[in-house]
TrEMBL record:
It holds the Pfam family Aminotran_1_2. Transmembrane segments: none annotated. It catalyses: L-aspartate + 2-oxoglutarate = oxaloacetate + L-glutamate. It comes from the Eukaryota. Gene3D superfamilies: Aspartate Aminotransferase, domain 1, Type I PLP-dependent aspartate aminotransferase-like (Major domain). Its cofactor is pyridoxal 5'-phosphate. Its EC number is 2.6.1.1. Keywords: Aminotransferase, Pyridoxal phosphate, Transferase. This is aspartate transaminase. The keyword DNA-binding does not apply. Homodimer.
């Protein structure tokens, strides 16, 4: 409830004679409080000098604490507020051109022109999303001739990009496998833990990154997956592991599949970078296709934020590869049932773009070329940064891990205070886990970045 209280410093209290039926209260620019009252038979105009009107509001949300800034998206907010000319945003994984400008793919513009020409309507989509998109996205992931698709064993539902698709799958796990646990890699994309926490799905971590080798702790990973309760969901990054940029080799993927099979675990893939790791859509789908071929039931969340640059269109999908078409039908019906009260049905624009690009052989091949260009630019930047670091750093430190990492990011190994030094002293905005987005770096800025990294690494504990 809101109430208005007056305190006056003037000696004489103001008495209103008569009963005004209207009372207007205002505060002038000078701070004087001005009360005017109008009665039906008389007018009173009262000025209370040097009076202060204090609005006392007692909110029912008084106990709501300020949320901390998001560890990734909060970095972009801080970057926007920085006025230093040298500033660099290497926080969020978003592709920039060599001029460090956001990039709309040419193929996306062409698809949008086609859509405009067709004059499509804005009717609601079905709960499951755009049918042409769902077909295209499953085929892109698994290959159009995949047996699981042919035998209609894949339940595909359009999601609100990668995040929304993961969240929908998490809600499904919570409802239909309530005692199951999800195992996530240590480290992983920062939002995974939030997603499972909010969906009420218990999770724990498996070892993944080995700081000593700056590589994969494969033994640790296998041991932890083996030790998990049978029937757990194992969250795996399909390619270009975020944040480490370290992926298992094909032989290691086979070994991981062996252990999952032995333990009756279900693989749950997060595929946010298909095409962005190697530049090839098929190569980057290797891990998912391997598990499907081996007969697993598999969850796969897909995103088109990065590979088609559709970040704000929120377009992605959740695919559940099931052991029969009958199960797939039922799983899909339940995913729709979960989606309906959450967001009813998904947005159409991004879905049409993907369906048009993947469904048109010319646009599809143009997309592949553009993706190779984007992946290629990141590889060039990676190489230049490595060269600059190796030339400038006279300590003999081996920086070659940067070249071995894959995808948009480099996991520099800088700790929290070193990462903070990068931002506070050098205006290089990055996440505090030492991850830098090479997609936000230009060749021209590598030299500056190398100086910042060397200073932070050697001069800050
Ligand atoms: N999975 C992974 C591994 C991932 O890196 C992201 C986004 C997503 C899913 C979700 O993307 P979406 O836009 O919902 O399709 N990662 C970048 C952006 C973010 O944090 O939201 C990032 O790590 O910078």
């Amino acid at each position: 409830m809101a109430s208005l209280a007056f305190s006056s410093t003037s000696a004489s209290p103001v008495a209103l004679r008569g009963r005004p039926n209207k009372l207007a209260i205002g505060v002038s620019q000078s701070g004087a409080c001005h009360v005017s009252a109008r009665g039906s038979d008389r007018k009173a105009r009262i000025f209370i000098t040097r009076a202060v009107a204090v609005e006392k509001k007692v909110s029912r949300f008084e106990d709501v604490a300020m949320a901390p800034p998001d560890p990734i998206l909060g970095v972009s907010e801080a970057f926007r507020a920085c006025t230093n000319e040298s500033k660099l945003n290497l926080g969020v994984g978003a592709y920039r051109t060599e001029d460090l400008q956001p990039y709309v793919l040419k193929v996306v513009k062409k698809a949008e022109t086609l859509m405009l020409e067709k004059g499509e309507n804005k009717e609601y989509l079905p709960i499951e999303g755009l049918v042409a998109f769902n077909k295209a996205t499953a085929e892109l992931l698994l290959g159009a001739d995949n047996h699981a698709i042919q035998s209609q064993r894949v339940a595909t539902v359009q999601g609100l990009s990668g995040t929304g698709s993961l969240r929908l799958a998490a809600a499904f796990i919570n409802r239909y496998c309530p005692s199951a646990k999800v195992l996530i890699s240590s480290p992983t994309w920062g939002n995974h833990k939030n997603i499972f926490n909010d969906a009420g799905v218990p999770w724990s971590e498996y070892r993944y990154y080995d700081p000593k080798t700056v590589g994969l702790d494969f033994e640790g990973m296998i041991a932890d997956i083996k030790a998990a309760p049978s029937g757990s969901f194992i969250l795996l990054h399909g390619c270009a592991h975020n944040p480490t940029g370290i992926d298992p080799t094909p032989e290691q993927w086979t070994k991981i599949a062996d252990v999952l099979e032995e333990k009756g675990h279900t693989p749950f893939f997060d595929v946010a970078y298909q095409g962005f790791a190697s530049g090839s859509l098929d190569e980057d789908a290797f891990s998912v296709r391997l598990f499907v071929e081996r007969g697993f039931e598999v969850f796969v969340a897909q995103s088109y934020s990065k590979n088609l640059g559709l970040y704000s269109e929120r377009i992605g999908a959740i695919n559940v590869v099931c052991s029969s078409s009958d199960v797939a039908n039922r799983v899909k019906s339940q995913l729709k049932r979960l989606a309906r009260p959450m967001y009813s049905n998904p947005p159409v624009h991004g879905a049409r773009i993907v369906a048009n690009v993947v469904g048109d052989p010319n646009l599809f091949s143009e997309w592949k070329t553009e993706m190779e260009e984007m992946a290629g630019r990141i590889k060039n930047v990676r190489k230049r940064l490595y060269d600059n670091l190796s030339q400038k750093d006279k300590s003999g430190k081996d920086w070659s891990f940067i070249l071995r990492q894959i995808g948009m990011f480099s996991y520099t190994g800088l700790n929290t205070s070193q990462s903070e030094n990068m931002t506070n002293k050098w205006h290089v905005y990055m996440t505090k886990d030492g991850r830098i987005s090479l997609a936000g770096l230009s060749l021209a800025k590598c030299d500056y970045l190398a100086d910042a990294i060397i200073d932070s690494y050697h001069n800050v504990n």
